[in-house]
Specification:
With 239 residues, this protein is of the alpha/beta class. It has ten helices and ten strands. The protein has a domain of 163 residues: 3-Layer(aba) Sandwich (Rossmann fold).
């Protein structure tokens, strides 16, 4: 479904990615892991063509290059993006936030509805008339994921979905990811949580200094402690 091939990318004259390779198959959950600042967010941005310019290599979705497309066209083709900073509309209610993406896709092709995302995140249903700006960080993360689902994506990108959240909320997000996986949603998750990797991932890619340095299954990842020691600062969460 998604293929990133030897991608180099830059913000203006400053190169952030120096050779990233990864792929996501239909129905697969892939975790992209690495320390902070090594290029995970830049990789996500290179996929959705936001703020960063790909200077070498290719980003292909369903066999077609995404290079040069405006971000809204990437979303229209079926790539949903949940950025690290969530970007909810603080002055709108939860339900108004969820109504924003609805006109973007034909109703007859819609897999997700406001009711179905409320079923996935019951708290959002309870707070549907509350302003998004007063929600907790975890609730805003749920809202950002729900809003992205309403674009009817075939591939969902989650950039550090647990960043800054309490351990209990992290577990709720992990359960939501597992529920989406059961629904067959393909996902690429920028991640540092061992639990997410163990419970959700089909494959793992490790990135360091803008390059892919490891690719394998979660079992292969867990079986190589040197990878964790050298490249990662991972977090484990307990109920």
């Amino acid at each position: 479904m998604l293929a990133i091939e030897n991608v180099r990318a830059a913000y203006g004259p400053s190169e952030a990615l120096h050779g990233v390779d990864l792929s996501v198959a239909e129905g697969e959950v892939v975790c992209l892991v690495g320390r902070n600042g090594v290029g995970k967010t830049s990789t996500m941005r290179a996929i959705v063509q936001e703020q960063i310019r790909v200077t070498q290599g290719d980003v292909r979705f369903d066999g077609h290059s995404l290079l040069g497309l405006p971000s809204h066209e990437v979303v229209h083709r079926g790539v949903g993006y949940v950025p690290e900073d969530r970007r909810v509309f603080a002055s709108l209610t939860v339900e108004e936030n969820l109504r924003v993406p609805l006109p973007s896709r034909a109703a007859k092709s819609r897999r997700w509805t406001v009711d179905s995302v409320y079923a996935l995140f019951p708290q959002l249903g309870e707070y549907r008339h509350r302003m998004a700006g007063v929600l907790s960080g975890g609730e805003q993360q749920m809202l950002s994921i729900a809003r992205s689902l309403l674009t009817n994506p075939r591939l969902l990108l989650l950039d550090e979905p647990h960043e800054g959240l309490a351990p209990k909320v992290v577990l709720e997000i992990i359960e939501a990811i597992k529920a989406l996986k059961k629904e067959g949603v393909s996902m690429l998750i920028s991640e540092q949580s061992v639990r997410t990797i163990q419970e959700c991932a089909d494959r793992v890619f490790v990135i360091d200094r803008g390059r892919t340095v490891f690719a394998g299954t979660p079992a292969e990842f867990a079986g190589d402690p040197e990878i964790t020691r050298k490249y990662l600062m991972v977090a484990e969460y307990h109920a």
